[in-house]
Every structure is written in C-alpha cells, then in structure tokens.
Amino acid sequence: MLTIKQSVRLGLALGAAVVAISVGSIAPAHEAQGLKVEAVKPRAGAKPAPARQAGEGAGPYAKMVIRGVTVIDGTGAPPRGPVDIVIENNVIAQILPAGTPGLALKAGREPRDFDYELDATGMFVLPGFVDMHVHGSTDDKAPDLSYSYKLWLAHGVTTVRGVDLAPLETSISERARSQRNEIVAPRIFAYQRPGQGKGWGGARTDTPEKARAWVQWAAKQGIDGIKLINNEDQPPEVMAAIMDEAKKLKLGTVAHLSQIGVGRMNAEQAGAAGLGTVTHFYGHFESMLKNGQVQNWRHDYNYADEQDRFGDVANLYAESVEEGSPMWWAYLEKQKENHVTFDPTMTIYAAGRDLMHARNADWHDQYTMPQLWEFYQSSRENHGSYFYDWTVGTEIKWRNFYHKFMRLLNDYKNMGGRVVTGSDSGFIFEPYGFGYVQELEMLQEAGFNPSQVVMAATLNGALTLYEAKGQPVPPIGSVRVGKLADLVIVKENPLQNFKTLYGTGALRLNEQTQKLERVGGVSYTVKDGIVYDAKKLLADVAEMVKAEKRRMGMPEEGLPHP
C-alpha cells in the first residue's frame, strides 16, 4: 500500500489540483529542505454545493403519510405508537393512532387522499437532529460542501449551526439555497466571527466601538449569530460589547474561551456578561481553579505548539476544585441563573483519550476523503493534527479530565441547565455525521439517560437557536402537530443502542446464522418535508471518496497509513 507521502506525490504527478492536497505531510522545518512551516495554516475556503439533482430526495408533497411508526418525540415523553404521521407541505398536520401494540395494523387507514405514502411499519421516528457546532468541508478537505452536507443528512442531522460554516458570504448564500431546497443540505444557521466579511474590508474589531460596528454591519448581512474566541482582539471589554450588541439585535452568541484570554474572561464571567453558549470545555474549569484564575503553565509551554495546547489542557482535571464541592455547585448555579447553554463537543477531542481507536474507526476507509485523511495526520501546520508524540500518560490525563467534564455536564443537566449536542467534525479523526453520533454516545456515558440524550440532540438545540431570535417556541426540535417536518426514521430503536445510528451500523450476532451482521443506520431523513434515502446519501459520499482517490492516483479501497 502507498504511504501518505507517496500517495500525495503520485496525485500531484498525475495532475491533481494543488489546492485540494493538504501539505500536512511535509516534514518538520529542519527536514523540509528550506520550506517554511507556519504554526497553523490560514483557514481554507469552501466551495458551494452543487445544485440538487433529480432523484435527490422526494417531495415536498401537498400531503404525505408516514405509516405505522413509534414516535420518540424529543420532549422527553416516552415512545408511543404505532401511529401514522400526516404531513401537509412541510408541516406535521396530524399524528393519528394506527393500531394497538401487539396486534396487526388495520389496512386502508385514513387519510387516503395522500400524494405520497411511506410504509415505515415497525420503525421509529425522531425529530431531526441539531448539530450546534459545525464547520463545512473546506476545499482542503473535500471537493465542495456537499461532502459534509450529505454526511450530516445521512446521520439524521437536519439543522446545523455553522460557527462558522464557511466564509460569511458563502454561509449566507448556502443558508438561502438550503432554505429554498436548491441543494441537498441541512437547515443552516450562520454564526460568523467578528471581523469577517468582504464588505467589512478586513478592519480589526479590537475595540468596543469597532466590535459594535461590525455586529451592526453583520446583522444587516443576515447572520444568525456570532462565534467569539477571546484572542488578542477580544479582551473582556470587546467581548462584553459584542454580546451586548448581539442581544439588542436578536443574534445568538457562542464562545470558545481560548487559553489566550480565559485568564481574564472565563465561562462564569462570560455568562454574567450575556454569553448564550459555552462551546467545548474551555472556560468551565478555569472558573473553578484551586489556585486563582490562571492555569499553572509549564515553564516551556508554548500555545502555538498544538501538542502543548491540547495536551496540557487536560491538566485542568487536577488544577480545578473537586466534583460536588461548594465552588463546583456555585459555578453551575450561576450559569443556570444566566441561562447559559453548554455545548460540550466531547466527540472532537475523544482521540485525546484513545488515539488508536479514533485512527482506526470503521468508517474511515469508505467515507473519509483522502485529503481529509491527510489533514488528520500529525502535522505542524494543520489545526488539530497535534499528535506529534502522544503518550499513554497524556491519554490517561485526558481520560481523567473527561470523567470530570462528564460529571459537570450531568450535574448541570440534573439541576435544570441546558446541554446541547455539537460535533465540530472535520478535525482530529472525526468525519462529519459519524462524529455527531459519537457525541450522543458520550452524553450517555456522562450519565444522561437515552431520552435525555435525544432531548439534548433535538429540542434543546432548537430552543437555543430560536430563543436567541426572540422566538421562544421553535418550529423544529420535536415531533408535534404544527412543527416543521424535519424527521429521522430508523429501523433500530436508538434508545436501546445509539451505535445503530452510525452510517456503518452496529455489529450484532445473528442467532439463526451465528454470524456477525451489521444492523442499523438511518433509513430516511426528512428535511423540509423532503424524504432523503439515507443509504443513498451514504452511497453518494462513498462514490465521491472513490472519485477523489482516482483523481489523486490512489487505490480506490482503503487509505494509506503511516
């Protein structure tokens, strides 16, 4: 099998476009024959998805009926069924009893004046999943945004919060195309970073006045919210100005409270200043340090060295107060009082606690783009590719840290705080869609019961997105009459095993044949009343991956391993 470097060289020799090849396999600077290696490459652009083609999804219809399903409605209510769900255009019009559990369903049930009927007898229906932390597939990871879109939809994700999805103009355009169903894509919420936008002209937003001006300008462009990261341009006074102006204009806010600025504004302080969502784990434990407000950095720590940055963050396990201590509960009470949402994105850092598992997941060979696979490999340039010398000691620190992080999330949920699901896929061995399902698994590991996991993945995300807009009753997020027809239809009960939601399914022993077989995967994803065959979406992605391998001169099957 070709090595990664051999594959890239061969692809270039055969005329592969340079823009599509990650240079993450270039050796460190002292080996790179004079090539300059930046700390992290500039962010890549994103190519819009191609137009939706004939045969990509069925509908919407004036009247569609989904027959014989058990509903898991996203509100925490117990499953119930069998029922028939009547959808008119893009709205759930009726949920009708279809029979009695344990007895045969009656044939010829009303209504009969439908334009489309989907026999899903014995299957389960959930609200469309909401991924609250996404970045679209940039042009150094895939040919265009349809790669990420189709993987999300194939895993039941019907709504995404881009933070950011793509450059501002592309995000706004793709959101509009998705609203019109001109592309095969989830519903898009466009959260952008301060200073973004060609029309803004590149001026820095490093004072409260400049930051407020950008928020006002970006609101006129049509963004839904703002992604903050407290870097050099966002000290506390600028962060506070952004959040204040955003609330006035009914824009949501989400913050990655990075190590650069967390010593001056941690999650508790950001919540008090009006932050809507804390994403990742940054800022939580810095709010509860045993020895003051600043983490104890090693004397040779370098934030620009990503193994330092991501390896040592797990030291917060030992540096923060004990679970269940008075300071622990006081922090959570303040965040709940300020209505702060927690978006943990545990999945994106899961490789930190078991790198070998992440590198060898079932889906990579068939569904991971070769250039995305190259991006994942240890690299001084590619963001998140920081496994330069990852040791068992570092993994143990991460496992301990996750134990504490999971306790924090479960305690917050138990006291009535809101927790949502986000994946941040496209980095650190996490492909789009697959990473989202792993987040559901990890919430259950944290102590959420399966129904609470589903609520976090559906209703909680919908509430967070629409409340920021001044709409306390969201049109999505639950399977109820009057809600939009964003649905996930599956053969296996996800409350019994979330692994059955993976596009690659889950392994189960067939007692008749005594052979292992794969079961599960989403059967249908309904977005805006349009029924997508999830298996076909996965087949489309698999063919896209093969086409890229052919273009790059690589074998169609498998991926090169170092």
Q: How is the topology of this model organized?
A:
Blueprint (H helix, E strand, L loop, with lengths): L3 H10 L47 E11 L8 E10 L1 E7 L18 E4 L4 E4 L1 E6 L11 H9 L2 E6 L5 H12 L7 E6 L15 H14 L3 E5 L6 H13 L3 E5 L10 H6 L4 E3 L26 H6 L4 H4 L6 H12 L3 E3 L11 H5 L4 H4 L2 H7 L15 H23 L3 E2 L14 H13 L3 H8 L1 H9 L19 E4 L15 E5 L4 E5 L2 E6 L2 E4 H18 L11
Parallel strand pairs: 1-4, 1-5, 6-7, 7-8, 8-9, 9-10, 10-11, 11-12, 12-13
Antiparallel strand pairs: 1-2, 2-3, 5-14, 14-17, 15-16, 17-18
Helix pairs in contact: 2-17, 4-5, 13-14, 14-15
Sheet-strand content, in percent, reads: 15-25%
- Report the biggest beta sheet as strand number plus sense, adding barrel if it closes: 8 strands, mixed
**CATH structural class of the domain at 128-366 and 376-483:** Alpha Beta
The average pLDDT is 92
Please report the total strand number as a whole number: 18
Overall spatial form? globular
CATH hierarchy: architecture of the domain at 128-366 and 376-483: Alpha-Beta Barrel
Low-confidence stretches: 1-39
First-residue to last-residue Cα separation: 10 Å
Query: CATH topology of the domain at 128-366 and 376-483, what is it called?
Result: TIM Barrel
Q: How helix-rich are the residues, as a percent range? A: 25-40%
CATH superfamily of the domain at 128-366 and 376-483: Metal-dependent hydrolases
How big is the Rg? 23 Å
Count of helical segments?
Answer: 17
Class from secondary-structure proportions: alpha/beta
